[in-house]
Design goal:
The protein is built from five helices and nine strands. By secondary structure, the protein is α/β, with parallel strands linked by helices. This is Molybdenum cofactor guanylyltransferase.
Length: 170
C-alpha cells in the first residue's frame, strides 16, 4: 500500500480559544506530533484545510465550510490523482497516534477509530463517493463512514482528543 497521511487541520478551534495546531503538547506543537506519527507510516504527509509553513497543504474540497469532511475529500482526490492507494487521516488534535495504526486499521475497505472517527484509513478510490455524499447534503464525517460501511476499530486505551487547553499536559 502507498499511503498518504492527511492531517485534518481546518477547524476553527472555538472551544480551544487559540490555534490548536500550534499548541504545545509537552515541548512539541500538536501538528508536529501528528505529522511525525503519520510520517512513520505513510509515504507522504499533507495538511488539509489550512496553509502551514513547512508542509504540503491542500485546501478543503469543495469548500472550507465542511469541517473534517472537506479535508478528507481534498486528501482522497489528491491521493487518487497521485497514485496513493489509501489516505490515513488524523485530526491535528490527536497526539497519541499508535505506531501500528495502518496495520490495525487495514483489512479491506475503510476503517475508522471508534472514539475518533476523524482518524481513519480510507481507500483513495472512494473519492467520487464522497463527492456524491457531499453533493447530496452530507456534512458529517461519521455519517459518511456509516454510508460506506467503514469498520469501527476500538483502541484501548482510547486515543486522546485535545479540545481545550486543560487537555494538554502541564
Amino acid at each position: 500500500m502507498k499511503i498518504l497521511g492527511a492531517i485534518l487541520a481546518g477547524g476553527q478551534a472555538r472551544r480551544f480559544g487559540s490555534d490548536k495546531a500550534h499548541a504545545l503538547y509537552g515541548s512539541t506543537r500538536l501538528i508536529d506530533l501528528v505529522a511525525t506519527k503519520l510520517r512513520e507510516q505513510c509515504s507522504a504527509v499533507v495538511v488539509c484545510g489550512r496553509e502551514e509553513p513547512g508542509f504540503d497543504c491542500l485546501p478543503d474540497r469543495p469548500e472550507a465550510s465542511l469541517g473534517p469532511l472537506g479535508g478528507l475529500n481534498a486528501a482522497l482526490h489528491y491521493a487518487h490523482a497521485h497514485g496513493f492507494s489509501h489516505v490515513l487521516s488524523a485530526g491535528v488534535d490527536v497526539p497519541n497516534l499508535p505506531a501500528d495504526l495502518v496495520q490495525t486499521l487495514s483489512g479491506g475497505g475503510a476503517a475508522i477509530v471508534q472514539s475518533q472517527p476523524v482518524v481513519g484509513l480510507w481507500p483513495a478510490s472512494i473519492a467520487g463517493e464522497l463527492d456524491m455524499f457531499i453533493a447530496g447534503g452530507g456534512r458529517a464525517l461519521y455519517a459518511f463512514a456509516g454510508h460506506i460501511s467503514a469498520r469501527k476499530v476500538a483502541f484501548d486505551p482510547p486515543l486522546l482528543n485535545v479540545n481545550t487547553p486543560d487537555d494538554l499536559p502541564d
